[in-house]
């Protein structure tokens, strides 16, 4: 097998193993997003990295192992972004708004994340189910919403019959569809909603719907 040095330096993979792994994951993410698990090839991934095919097998075992790590990295990135929002320091309505806005923007900026999740759904979530890390990461996402909802209820703002999981579903559904169905939607109805002003309007409406769902009816009416 070819043993191409990482970053153009002999033995580069030994000097910066984390950098090599990150490079492989970034290239593999794009390849899996474009071609799926079945269509992606280790040879193609290797050719676009700064390391060798041998090192891909060394770090990730095989193509399925690499795909599993790409899937974990995709979820880790979005959850790390949520962590940086520091929602616990915000009033509950503002925290919910910020989380919804972040999700919409993150998904819009990371179409490969959406495609990877779509591909994993084709595989019926089989690889996701194997990952303890993904379960922990996504449990943390619900815990954040649970904290927001608890503070909202304690303040007399939020309904008791809307759950954090339901709010997560609504935020994810609208943010996901905005990317996953962009090609078909725009070919049927035009591209206005996907221009900058169209995206801002959709994001604002999505946030209003999510917050309106969480608020008690009298709070929505300003009383």
UniProtKB/TrEMBL annotation:
The keyword Phosphoprotein does not apply. Residues 41-60 bind DNA. InterPro entries: Homeodomain-like_sf, HTH-type_TetR-like_transc_reg, HTH_TetR, NicS_C, Tet_transcr_reg_TetR-rel_C_sf. Residues 18-78 form the HTH tetR-type domain. Pfam families: TetR_C_29, TetR_N. Keywords: DNA-binding. The keyword DNA-binding applies. It comes from the Bacteria. PANTHER family: HTH-TYPE TRANSCRIPTIONAL REPRESSOR SCO4008 (PTHR30328:SF54), TRANSCRIPTIONAL REPRESSOR (PTHR30328). This is TetR/AcrR family transcriptional regulator.
């Amino acid at each position: 097998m070819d043993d191409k040095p990482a970053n153009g330096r002999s033995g580069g993979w030994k000097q910066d193993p984390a950098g090599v792994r990150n490079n492989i994951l970034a290239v593999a993410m794009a390849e899996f997003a474009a071609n799926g698990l079945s269509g992606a090839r280790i040879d193609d991934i290797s050719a676009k990295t700064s390391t060798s095919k041998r090192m891909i097998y060394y770090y990730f075992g095989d193509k399925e192992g690499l795909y599993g790590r790409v899937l974990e990295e995709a979820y880790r990135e979005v959850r790390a972004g949520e962590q940086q929002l520091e929602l616990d320091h915000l009033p509950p309505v503002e925290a919910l708004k910020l989380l919804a806005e972040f999700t919409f923007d993150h998904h819009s900026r990371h179409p490969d994340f959406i495609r990877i999740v779509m591909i994993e759904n084709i595989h019926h979530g089989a690889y996701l189910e194997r990952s303890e890390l993904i379960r922990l990461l996504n449990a943390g996402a619900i815990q954040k919403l649970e904290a927001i909802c608890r503070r909202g209820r304690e303040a007399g703002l939020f309904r008791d019959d809307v759950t954090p999981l339901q709010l997560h579903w609504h935020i994810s559904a609208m943010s996901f569809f905005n990317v996953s169905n962009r090609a078909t939607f725009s070919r049927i109805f035009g591209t206005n909603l996907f221009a900058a002003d169209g995206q801002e309007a959709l994001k604002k409406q999505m946030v209003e719907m999510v917050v309106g769902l969480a608020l008690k009816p009298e709070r929505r009416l300003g009383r």
